[in-house]
Amino acid sequence: MSFLTRQMTSKVPRLATRAFSTSRPSQLARITVVGRLGAEPEVVETAKGSTLVKYVVGTSQGPKDNRTTSWFRVTSFAEGPQRDFITGLPKGTLVYLEGDAAMRQYEDTEGKNRTALSIVQTKLDVLQRPRVESTESSEE
């Protein structure tokens, strides 16, 4: 058999090999959002007694005269100083958010089945704090 017709049996690296990990590949859904907080984050207690932080991030797109905003509801399981940092952020803070995304099904108050995007925060960076409008006071 000539070298042109024989099967390649040499060890050639697979193109799909994940060089950064030795674990089995798994499916992943990630989302990145850059937007402003729609309200101050709030601490919520679950039915099982644990606490978590919920907040909303809005992103706007389109021309100024016809801009549309998408609102993303985010959950954070941060604890300690990290939780205090998140809950101390004011409305309007520009944030960079990375999170795990999943579609969740639930039943609304009218008994209809609904689907919603669920985002669990994995990273949060503050890009810009909102401007604080200073009131002019007469200092005499």
What does this structure look like?
InterPro entries: NA-bd_OB-fold, Primosome_PriB/ssb, ssDNA-bd. One of its GO terms (cellular component) is mitochondrial nucleoid. One of its GO terms (biological process) is mitochondrial DNA replication. Keywords: DNA-binding. Helices cover 5% and strands 44% of the residues. It has one helix and six strands. The protein has one domain: OB fold (Dihydrolipoamide Acetyltransferase, E2P), CATH 2.40.50.140. By secondary structure, the protein is mainly β. A five-stranded mixed β-barrel has the order 1-3-4-6-5. It has one helix at 81-87, and strands at residues 30-37, 42-45, 51-61, 68-76, 94-107, 113-128. The longest helix is centred in the middle third of the chain and has 7 residues, at 81-87. The model has no long low-confidence stretch (mean pLDDT 85).
How would you sum up this structure in a few lines?
This protein has 140 residues and is mostly beta strands.
CA(first)-CA(last) distance: 101 Å
Shape field:
globular
Largest sheet, in brief, is: 5 strands, mixed, barrel
CATH homologous group name: Nucleic acid-binding proteins
Number of domains as seen in the coordinates: 1
CATH architecture call: Beta Barrel
The number of helical runs is 1
Question: Which structural class do the helices and strands define?
Answer: mainly beta
Mean pLDDT equals 85
Please count the beta strands (DSSP E, at least 2 residues each): 6
**Poorly predicted tracts of residues:** none
Order of helices and strands: EEEEHEE
Instruction: Bin the helical content.
Output: under 10%
Biggest sheet strand line-up: 1-3-4-6-5
Just give the CATH class: Mainly Beta
Rg, rounded, reads 24 Å
